[in-house]
Amino acid sequence: MAKKRKTSTTRRKPKSSKPKNKTPPVLVEKTQKLVRRLNKMVDGTFLAYWTSEQGSICSNDVQAMAEVLRIVKPSDRIALFVKSDGGDGTSALRLIHLLREWAPHLTVLAPLECASAATMLALGADEIHMGPLAFLTPIDTSLEHPMGPVDPRNETVYVGHDELQRVLALWEKHSPQTDVNPFQELYKYLHPLVVGAVDRATSLSIRLCTEILQYHLDNDAEAERIAGALNADYPAHEYPITPREARRLGLNVKNLDPELNATLLELNQLYSEMGQRAVTDYDEFNYHNNEIVNIIEGPGAQFYFQNDKDWHYRKEERQWSSLHVESGWYRSVIEKGRVKRFRLYMS
Q: Other CB atoms closer than 10 Å to residue 28's CB: what's the count?
């Protein structure tokens, strides 16, 4: 007589339908070797401030920079490697104030782009050392506003002060005899509050640039001239201000030492690897973003900001919304040959 097979009472757990979230590498062992080498190559204490294309200069960077400075305890001279597409101008002012609380002399090292709010940051340096690939940019203002126009995806678009001024100038040039106020026509497409907000933001930008320059420039009139030029004299926000033009503008720009420039580019490659795309697609309406976007580092201290959030597309609103947000600043350390990370909590 054949024996009956025993049936297992344990059930296998169903496999999750979601793929495992991608995680970027944390290369603190490699970056710290380069940071220590760079610290020996510069006059003073070396610090790095790097943002990816998805990152930006923002307010919580100031607290992260304060933590790095507390650990590193720099000398009276700081050499700051800056690579960024820009961000918040008020944060640039706060960063300059913080750095100068620690060191009376600041040098900005710019081997690559140092744009928009990063240009503001560079204005606060006694010296700006620029490499062959480096450029600054104008700081003309554009902003999003809740009352502003939207694009076909139902997202608000940026409105620039220079664009508004050009519309008004073209109106005056081509319709000088008309009795119609140009603002009457403009307000059909742009809310008056948006026009006022753009004008206010431009005033703020000029004030920020002037204040930052005055940390090392005693001539107030010269500071106002440079600030005015960066906010009004260029036809495009993306215009690359090369070292030669930056000198003509009146900035204390020097050529970056070739060996130092090469080493900074090597560090940038490691940061770019850390900041690589780390997006996991669940389906056409949901994905997870896990990218490292900002890095601040000095000898013995590496901090980075990592996105950690789900995104969901609301079809009825035609907009992406973030969910389950756990993004934040982390410190990476090496303990017993292993890389560990610790959350930096901010309130």
A: 23
Domain boundaries, the chain: 28-137+240-279+289-307+325-344, 143-197
Q: 3-class DSSP state for residue 95? A: helix
Provide mean pLDDT across the span 238-256.
Answer: 96
Which helix (H) or strand (E) segment holds residue 250: the answer is none
Alpha carbons within 13 angstroms on the beta-carbon side of residue 185 total 11
Q: Compute the residue count for the chain.
A: 347
Query: What is the SS3 assignment for 310?
Result: strand
Location of structure tokens 């260029």:
234
Highest mean pLDDT among 15-29, 40-54, 329-343: 40-54
* β-sheet bridge partners, residue 142: 160
Tell me if 271 sits within 8 A of 279, measured CB to CB: no
| Full DSSP string of 260-280 | HHHHHHHHHHHHHHHTS--EE
Give 115-136 pLDDT, tens digit per residue. Answer: 999 999 999 999 999 999 999 9
Question: Whole-prediction pTM value?
Answer: 0.86
Answer for the pair 126, 105: CB distance below 8 angstroms, yes or no.
yes
Contact 300, 36 (CB under 8 A): no
* CATH 2.60.40 corresponds to the domain 28-137+240-279+289-307+325-344: no
3-state SS class at 139: coil
Chain centre to alpha carbon of residue 136: 14
pLDDT of residue 267: 98
Name the strand (E) or helix (H) holding 289.
strand 286-289
With beta carbons less than 8 A apart as the criterion, state whether 77 and 192 touch: no
Confidence of residue 13 (pLDDT cuts 50, 70, 90): low
- Alpha-carbon gap, residue 59 to 153, rounded angstroms: 28
pLDDT band with cut points at 50, 70 and 90 for residue 174: confident
Report the pLDDT value the prediction gives residue 17, as an integer from 0 to 100. 67
